[in-house]
Amino acid sequence: MAEKFNQEETTAGKIDSFLTRNRSLLLTVALVVLVAIIAVAAFVVITGKSAEKGLSQVDAIYYTLTKDADSLEGDALLARQDSALEQLATLTKKGGIVGARANMLAADLQFQKKDFEAAKASYLKVASAKKNAYTAPLAYFNAAACAENLNDLDGALEYYTKASVSEDFLLADHALFSIGRVNEAKSDFKAAQDAYNKLNDVRPDGDWAELAKSRLIELKANGSIE
Question: Whole-model pTM?
Answer without folding.
Answer: 0.73
